[in-house]
């Protein structure tokens, strides 16, 4: 079984391409591609979303940004609508030059593009504000269409309530934490996630007292040390559930979970499914080659 590698119709001579479709079902398998993607879906309550190692059921409408090479797909699942509206915008990952993205005025866009490596789900309030503009984007052309796309991307980047979908260790691209100390800590945890790590161990790597480091990682990432370590471990668990036939108990042990009850509870809290359900859901959306 494998993931479809999609060759998008976006050419090197275009800044972006847009597809607008009305459909009765989702029938395209799990896939990835080099280009970035903004996907607006309307009238599809009950459909299933898979982005990276995230699996979820969508509400009536949703807006998602998917980074380069991140596996994703939408599936009919429990959706009963026969009038699904889907608008997809695909654009080159280097649409904004790296040197331009480092300018102070584009900090929010740079952060959004970096976070899109994990997939971004935007809030209902953002959908209400941005959806009409996405729906009207096809009516614009030339330079006006580029200006509007840039404006949409900017407004998305500064919107509130953005949810990260996939675990950090599931993505194939390295994440940027804008802190050498944090990156050193995450590198250490990624290299030792299968061991029993304590706050004291990681604080030494950061060169900080435990209490100070605990506050520091929370401020920088929004997650506690324990939550950050569990996310790293669960990312590796998800990858092994998808890519191997090892038993769930073997995978949990290899990824640093020594207590199966705690592992199952932590996995379901984070993913919304048990490890067995996750494996069945994900593999069922792949294709035989």
Task: Provide a compact summary of the structure.
By secondary structure, the chain is of the alpha+beta class.
Which CATH first-tier class of the largest domain would you pick?
Mainly Beta
Pick out the low-confidence regions.
none
Strand order of the largest sheet: 2-9-4-7-10-11
Which CATH architecture of the largest domain is right? Sandwich
The arrangement of helices and strands along the chain is EEEEEEEEEHHEHHEHHHHHHH
Find the structural class using helix and strand composition: alpha+beta
Let me know the number of strands. 11
Task: Please tell me what the overall shape is.
Answer: globular
Taking the sheet with the most strands, its summary is: 6 strands, antiparallel
Mean pLDDT: 90
SSE order and pairing:
Elements: E1 4-5, E2 16-23, E3 31-32, E4 36-42, E5 48-51, E6 54-57, E7 61-66, E8 72-75, E9 84-91, H1 98-101, H2 107-115, E10 120-121, H3 124-136, H4 142-157, E11 163-164, H5 180-192, H6 199-206, H7 210-221, H8 225-243, H9 248-254, H10 260-271, H11 275-283
Parallel strand pairs: 1-3
Antiparallel strand pairs: 2-9, 4-7, 4-9, 5-6, 5-8, 7-10, 10-11
Helix pairs in contact: 2-4, 3-4, 5-6
Short descriptors:
289 residues; alpha+beta; Jelly Rolls; Arc Repressor Mutant, subunit A; 2 domains; three-stranded antiparallel β-sheet; 11 strands; 42% helix; globular
Overview of this protein structure:
With 289 residues, the chain is α+β, with helices and mostly antiparallel strands. It folds into two domains: 161 residues, Regulatory protein AraC (Jelly Rolls, Sandwich); 104 residues, Orthogonal Bundle (Arc Repressor Mutant, subunit A), CATH 1.10.10.60. The chain has eleven helices and eleven strands. Strands 2-9-4-7-10-11 form a six-stranded antiparallel sheet, with helices on one face. Strands 6-5-8 form a three-stranded antiparallel sheet, covered by helices on one side. Strands 1-3 form a two-stranded parallel ribbon. Strand 5 and strand 6 form a beta hairpin. Helix 2 packs across helix 4. The relative contact order is 0.13.
